[in-house]
Amino acid sequence: MIKIRTGEEIALLKENALIVSKTLAEVGRHVAPGVTTKSLEVLAETFIRDHGAEPAFLGYEDFPAAICISLNSTVVHGIPSDYALQEGDLVSIDVGTRYKGYFGDSAYTFGVGVLSPENQQLLRITHDSLFKGIAKAVAGNRVGDISAAVQNHVEPLGFSVVRKMVGHGIGTKLHEKPDVPNYGRQGQGKKLADGMVLCIEPMINAGGSGVYLEEDNWTLKTEDHKNSAHFELTVVVRSGKPEILSTFDFIDEYNKTYQA
Ligand code: MG
Ligand code: MG
Hints:
binds magnesium ion, alpha+beta, 15 strands
């Protein structure tokens, strides 16, 4: 069963989404050469707690950190460390919150300093594929319409979709039904209805779609060690036009790369 959320519940999910969005922007402001990923995590955890929320990833299935920080060929679930960021790195920041019994979850991939043209293209295509998917989060559509929109944006450009990890519903749990894959067929899968809340999160690789898990059992990397990017927003399925709960607007205030 996919939950249909009431207006009151969506208001609480929106409060979470705003804290998550502001946390992503706060972390992104500090992404620079020489900064350790551990220090970014500390910043994020402090920011989340200062807003009265809890970092939802800390302890989730024993995940050891407050946020995920995934560098370069790491797709998702990277664990913050003493690694100091270097010019040209890709830094995916994934933030989750728990606040007033509901959850928030969004992600953004930042670049450190000047990026190679290949990395710039990877970020732009992944970012744009998210919005292609979101546009299909409309009542009466199917999950496969979202999936196909993402896949059909990236594959013709020579990029590939990670199969192993998918988007998800969100509510009183961090991960709820349905799964929202970033590959699939139009018109297939569960039917979408007004009030369903989804986390749409394309994970896109510059090379092949293959991934493997590191020995820490969390860090998911590309098999060919080519780079990967990840963007995620929380969206309410609506009739006509989806309602986007989390936002990159706070990031757009200082990072002009993706503005329309
Ligand atoms: Mg998610
Ligand atoms: Mg996430």
